[in-house]
Fold this protein.
Amino acid sequence: MLRRGGHSFAGALCKSYSSDAASPNIFDRALKRKQRDRAAWLNRPDDSLLQSVADNLLDRLQDCKRTFPSALCYGGSLHTVRRLLNGRGAIEKLTMMDTSLDMVKLCRDAEQHISDNIQTSFMVADEEFLPIKENCLDLIISCLGLHWTNDLPGAMIQSRLALKPDGLFLASIFGGETLKELRIACTIAQMEREGGISPRVSPLAQVRDAGNLLTRAGFTLPSVDVDQYTVRYKSALELIEHLRAMGETNALMQRNYVLKRETALATAAIYDSMFAAEDGTIPATFQVIYMTGWKEHHSQQKAKRRGSATVSFEDIKKEFGNKE
């Protein structure tokens, strides 16, 4: 239950971003690729959470009354985005990209059941090292994938470089409030059973950071929206199975490789005792941050230079300040 609060593998186009400052390796990207392979095997076409997030992201695309001759969709729930695209955004050519070969194969196999006229190609590549030439795309979409990159600002900079001037970047990521119930239950269980805590749930960006990420990456006209979803499960085990099917299980480099049985049972019991509803189900919160940004172009609106105003705040106060 969910509640709201021409087909071929494309070759690499070699032009990747590099940073002088080495980024810390927080996530095990090789493990994440394997997890996404598993997610392709466990694919749930009727996943209401992924469908809702993809729909909301594509609604923002539909609001743009323009044509996008070339587009890239990478990582996350790209197969759900492709299925729900259905002509939104007036895309002519679309490249589907993922680090997981099995996930790309899933998208390719599903393409035969899609009846729109978008020319689609497929590519296996890593969004941390985007193999796209500069200034060659009109649109980039990422739905629930970028929060697994070790250098999120760097990945977003690469996306901006790949866009043509006035190109659009649309992304959604899980925010810091995601799985807060599971974090609490895990922490208490580990303190009780092991006398300390180890990372079990990955760190996520906070809402207050999203706008800064867009600005730091060099996007203009940045926009950030937040939505929150509550999914109810029969048990904590069902929640974990859903996370596996989404490819959202722990991939921290410094993770604890062994989860003691008594700690796992204690986590499930604490989760149930603290958060279970009268019907016996348990809630899980998913906070989603939607980010929109444009590559700079001379036609875009720009802020006026400082001191160019023709009306002062004092004048406004005199005009409206005493009116009720």
Q: What stands out?
A: The CA atoms of residues 120 and 224 lie 29 Å apart. The chain has a mean pLDDT of 85. The first strand starts at residue 2 and ends at 4. The domain at 29-296 is CATH 3.40.50.150 (Rossmann fold).
